[in-house]
């Protein structure tokens, strides 16, 4: 199947990935844009894993203040070089993540940041609920239900697991992995803070 420049350009504009990678993804997907997007996401995860050991030597801090001034967020987005840190698209990515933090109030950066105490509290809360709603069911089913509830509960609180506020089809983690592919450098959210008046 012949892949047209319009398709390649549309995929490039949407993802920011190099033209040749977009062309290859479209060829492998037989011209199917959705399959090509999925292939590029998969590839970005592989690239991010390879580059994750590289040292972050630079980055940018971005701030977002909501229109009424009552909510704001700051994000430090790290990368390897000043060259990438000064790139306008990299700065926009940091800004978009800050806007996401202001909107969705994540509590943790990654699952690893959740304390054992917090996990125990959540488990105690959901054990009671599972016991009430699944009385008489086998323990294995109750345990599976409990694990499912805990997973959903904590995914809503972990920044990298949250669906991106501007595009619910991808998580913040997917967005950062895409940046690794786009900029060719290890990219990570180093830290974030959210501020709200009166809280």
Provide a short characterization of the protein structure.
It contains eight helices and five strands. It has 199 residues and is of the alpha+beta class.
How would you characterize this protein structure?
It is a single chain. The chain is α+β, with helices and mostly antiparallel strands. It folds into 3 domains: 5-51, Ubiquitin-associated (UBA) domain (Helicase, Ruva Protein, domain 3, Orthogonal Bundle); 58-109 and 157-196, Tetrahydropterin Synthase, Chain A, CATH 3.30.479.20; 115-155. Helix content is 54%, strand content 17%. The chain has helices at 5-15, 19-28, 33-51, 82-85, 88-104, 116-133, 139-155, 172-183; strands spanning 58-65, 71-79, 163-164, 167-171, 188-196. The strands form 2 sheets. Strands 1-2-5 form a 3-stranded antiparallel beta sheet. Strands 3-4 form a two-stranded antiparallel ribbon. A hairpin with a 2-residue loop joins strand 3 (163-164) and strand 4 (167-171). The mean pLDDT is 85.
Give short descriptive properties of this protein:
single chain; 199 residues; alpha+beta; Helicase, Ruva Protein, domain 3; Tetrahydropterin Synthase, Chain A; three-stranded antiparallel sheet; two-stranded antiparallel ribbon; 8 helices
